[in-house]
Inverse folding.
């Protein structure tokens, strides 16, 4: 199958399965009941969207036979473990240590099969740094951070799925530009899967992707950014996937810092994420989501330009990113310092 066929095939599987799993959710009571104040929905919602994403992804990836390789099989096995952990967490909420243990086991499967960060380069064509075995803890840190970042951003209808689609199509374009066919295949399949479920997941959502979906997506994106970009001149261009996943990473890291500043556990949930801030400024639910989409698109455009730029323009793009991130910190008051120090 070519990329377009993979995209269309996975999209139609998602479109077909979503109504079916919505009915299953209501019949067997697989519903997210809003019991916490931070929940933005007010009625029970089906949460089996993650299984739809997984089935569509798995079916499409295994049915195509032209570019099948060992990497695909390893990704399927390890991501299946992430999905199972997410499903358990959706039904019987797990403690953070339990989630982390499952993620560590899944990442260990990748590393055992030689999928981890080896050579790191800051910009295309620049000097590379060989991490050797130090790349293993770096791989653990990267995958855990990205997986949980996409899980944390899943706070509004269509938010995680839409941001994930933007990140995935960016990885697809960069993979095609760079000739990374394996990564391009996986990202094309995931793109179709996400666009298929998004009409049911966007405001007003008829189904949630759940922790199983958001963790599965984050895990896949973290892995294909490494396995794909590792083949670009034999190096992992570390800044490019950071920029692609810029918004979820920004939200996750600022949440950790904010909670530490306030003396709270970094695992303690709050209503001070980016989407909460935007709604607090008077934006409607869908408008807040679209604003975040636009920010994600901006990061993605910068990432693509980074791949094809020379050194001088690459540095300029990094400067633009830093200025924009600083602007977000100040405008959104992500650390909650404005009310604390300005009376």
């Amino acid at each position: 199958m070519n990329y377009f066929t993979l995209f269309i095939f996975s999209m139609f599987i998602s479109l077909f399965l979503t109504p079916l799993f919505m009915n299953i959710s209501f019949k067997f009571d697989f519903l997210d009941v809003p019991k916490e104040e931070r929940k933005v929905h007010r009625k029970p919602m089906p949460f089996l969207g993650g299984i739809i994403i997984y089935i569509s992804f798995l079916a499409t990836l295994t049915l195509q036979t032209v570019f099948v390789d060992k990497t695909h099989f390893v990704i399927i096995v390890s991501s299946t473990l992430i999905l199972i952990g997410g499903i358990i967490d959706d039904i019987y909420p797990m403690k953070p240590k339990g989630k982390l243990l499952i993620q560590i086991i899944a990442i260990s499967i990748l590393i055992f099969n030689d999928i981890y960060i080896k050579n790191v380069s800051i910009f295309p064509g620049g000097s590379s740094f060989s991490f050797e075995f130090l790349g293993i803890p770096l791989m653990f840190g990267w995958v855990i951070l990205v997986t949980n970042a996409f899980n944390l951003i899943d706070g509004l209808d269509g938010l995680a799925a839409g941001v994930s689609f933007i990140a995935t199509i960016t990885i697809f374009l960069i993979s095609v530009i760079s000739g990374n066919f394996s990564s391009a295949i996986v990202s094309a399949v995931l793109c179709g899967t996400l666009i298929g479920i998004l009409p049911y997941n966007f405001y007003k959502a008829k189904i949630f992707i759940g922790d199983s979906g958001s963790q599965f997506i984050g895990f896949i994106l973290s892995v294909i950014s490494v396995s794909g970009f590792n083949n670009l001149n034999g190096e992992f261009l570390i800044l490019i996937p950071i920029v692609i996943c810029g918004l979820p990473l920004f939200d996750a890291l600022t949440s950790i810092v904010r909670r530490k500043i306030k003396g709270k556990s970094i695992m303690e949930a709050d209503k001070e994420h980016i989407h909460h801030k935007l709604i607090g400024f008077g934006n409607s639910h869908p408008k807040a989501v679209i604003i975040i989409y636009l920010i994600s698109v901006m990061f993605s455009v910068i990432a693509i330009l980074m791949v094809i730029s020379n050194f001088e323009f690459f540095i300029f793009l990094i400067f633009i990113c830093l200025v924009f991130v600083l602007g977000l910190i100040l405008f959104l008051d992500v650390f909650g310092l404005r009310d604390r120090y300005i009376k």
